[in-house]
Amino acid sequence: MNVVQVIGNSSDPTAATTKQFGEFWAELAKRFRTNPKVIFGINNEPHDMVCVAPHLLRSWLIFIPKPTQLVLANNQAAINGIRSVGAAQLILAPGNAWTGGHSFTQVSGNNYAPSSDYMNKMWDPLHNLAIDIHEYLDEDYSGTHANCTQPAPSNLAALTAWLKENKLKAMITEFGGGDNDVCYQMLDEMFKYMDANDEYIGWSIWAAGPLWGRSSPCCGAETGSLEPNMLNADGKPEYVTIVFV
């Protein structure tokens, strides 16, 4: 789910409240609670979380969470909603600042608190929760440049230490690099890093498919586009097997 309005921003009458966000997830989870192949990803890349200042409200008694606190509140509402209907599947919860792994323990935006200050406060009664992480390898971590200059092992080190300290897990659900030898090497280093650290329980890469053509950020010529029944540049089967569930 990705929205324009800031969920839980009480100054915006068009924005969903945190309570409504939890109710939405309860309804959605109810429809998929018996499907073991479903993972619930709460929200895509929260960022620029604008919260109204108390002096803009009529009452000074209203508690206004700070941006990263608001991400935590929304996450917890979704977790509560999902579990309230008996859905037991894995939940992926993001941090603030596009949930970047490199910045997870850093101040972001307009002096927003690090995600690491709050995301260890989430509670899942089933203990089937992981942190949703995005980590691109280009110069500004956006995944929009062909060249890879940001090494994942060193950029993820602080996050990994935080996960270990808090006995939490993470899944890197977006990452990628350009179609060139440097990126292939750095992606390989990233895979090896995740394999070497049990805090990472899985990954999904961005992006693939016919719309991307040869500029697909995830794949080299020998890999192919990751589309079913396609051949790579050498006329051989794809590097991975596609399974639709």
Short description:
25% of the residues lie in helices and 9% in strands.
Looking at this protein, list some descriptive labels.
single chain, 245 residues, alpha/beta, 5-stranded parallel beta sheet, 5 helices, 9% strand
Descriptive overview:
This protein is α/β, with parallel strands linked by helices and 245 residues long. It has helices spanning 18-32, 67-84, 152-155, 157-165, 181-196; strands at residues 40-41, 91-94, 129-134, 170-174, 200-203. It has a five-stranded parallel sheet, covered by helices on one side. Helix 5 (181-196) links the parallel strand 4 (170-174) and strand 5 (200-203). The longest helix is centred in the N-terminal third of the chain and has 18 residues, at 67-84. The chain is globular, with a radius of gyration of 19 Å. Residues 53-63 have low confidence and may be disordered.
